[in-house]
Specification:
Shape: globular
Number of strands: 2
Order of helices and strands: HHHHHEE
Largest sheet: 2 strands, antiparallel
Length: 204
């Protein structure tokens, strides 16, 4: 039975993406992160804030794209490379070690950099940024752990093939050894500024 034309086209695009990912993993990961963060902002403005095309803040979307390409993509992609060097195995115990390093070491540091960066892009002073970090950081970190725990339960590391590309296609494909992908905030409308909501984080 021949698959529907739309499904065939989607599969062809996915295979093309995988080939590009294999040939240029770093570039594709960075561009994917930027594209999806930009897409997330478009969805937020159009479906959540209901701004419409005329009121759409293109500068905000461009900022999100730059943030994904310039910070999230390189940092998370680079961390996974380091993680694979620190724990090179693919057994269940190795996956557990990677998860502990990822959640115990990387996640707190990443959020500690990511949240102030958002505050800076919003034009906050150093003092206001510090106050906001102290207020939001604990909730953001706890929410991140909840999201990761739910993802691990839904898709345990043992069920993932080691041959799956080690990228995050934020939808970045899951990291095969850890069994989960990075979490990023859903942007909530707040005076037209970027505002990561601690209660609305989703796993990409």
């Amino acid at each position: 039975m021949t698959p529907p034309l739309g499904l065939t086209g989607s599969m062809a695009l996915w295979r093309a993406y995988q080939r590009a990912l294999t040939a240029h993993p770093w570039k594709v990961q960075v561009l994917t992160a930027g594209s999806l963060m930009g897409l997330g902002d478009v969805i937020s403005q159009q479906l959540v804030e209901r701004r419409g095309l005329r009121e759409h803040q293109a500068g905000r979307t461009l900022t999100m794209v730059c943030l994904g390409c310039g910070f999230v993509g390189p940092v998370v992609g680079g961390w996974y490379r380091v993680l694979d060097r620190l724990v090179p195995g693919t057994a269940k115990v190795d996956a557990l070690k990677k998860m502990l390093l990822d959640q115990g070491g990387f996640a707190p540091c990443f959020l500690g950099c990511f949240l102030p960066l958002i505050g800076t892009l919003n034009g906050l002073s150093a003092q206001d940024n510090w106050a906001k970090l102290r207020r939001d950081y604990p909730d953001a970190l706890v929410t991140n752990y909840y999201v990761r725990a739910d993802t691990s339960a839904a898709c345990p590391p043992a069920s993932l093939s080691p041959e799956v590309p080690r990228d995050w296609g934020s939808s970045l494909p899951r990291h095969p050894s850890v069994g989960m992908t990075p979490s990023f905030p859903v942007w909530a409308p707040h005076s037209g500024k970027l505002s990561p909501t601690c209660s609305a984080w989703f796993c990409l």
